[in-house]
Design a protein that fits this description.
Layout (H helix, E strand, L loop, with lengths): L4 H15 L8 H8 L3 H13 L3 E4 L5 E4 L8 H9 L24 H15 L4 H11 L7
Antiparallel strand pairs: 1-2
Helix pairs in contact: 1-3, 1-4, 1-6
């Protein structure tokens, strides 16, 4: 499994919106500049996030985007599944019921199940708020006395 640029950028956009959440709407050009993503590609990603209700948008001169809810409510898994689809490393585990003809005799199925569980455990237990906290704790402050 490899996460596409769309998935990685969607996480970065959500983090950017959370970090710069002042109550004002944030313009695409500002996000694009900070994240070094083309405005055109960013608009495609934000459209996906907007349709899913992860961000709010306002059109016009004072328009832009905001994160739609508390950053604690958005996991990395939610964002990646929205942009990537299934995070399963094998096709036979992409749906609830395994449709593989060999699932009863597959010697490797448990490995793929364990890998899927490990991936889900990571991405479903990290929120945008966790990334904000990590970002804020990595900022060093120089105090002048």
């Amino acid at each position: 499994m490899k996460i596409s640029t769309r998935g990685r950028y969607a996480v970065r956009v959500m983090l950017d919106l959370a970090l710069h959440n002042t109550g004002e709407y944030i313009k695409v050009k500002d996000i694009a500049k900070r994240q070094e993503i083309s405005e055109k590609y960013l608009e495609q990603i934000i459209s996906i996030l907007n349709k899913a209700g992860f961000v709010h948008s306002v059109r016009g001169a004072q328009g832009g985007y905001q994160i739609a809810d508390d950053p604690k409510k958005f996991t990395i898994g939610m964002i990646l599944r929205l942009t990537e689809g299934s995070l399963s490393p094998v096709a036979c585990l992409e749906s609830e019921s395994n449709q593989c003809e060999r699932c009863d005799t597959c010697e490797t199925l448990d490995v793929w199940k364990d890998l899927t569980a490990a991936i889900n455990n990571v991405v479903d237990n990290v929120t945008i708020a966790d990334l904000v906290e990590k970002h804020n704790s990595s900022i060093s402050y120089d105090y002048v006395i």
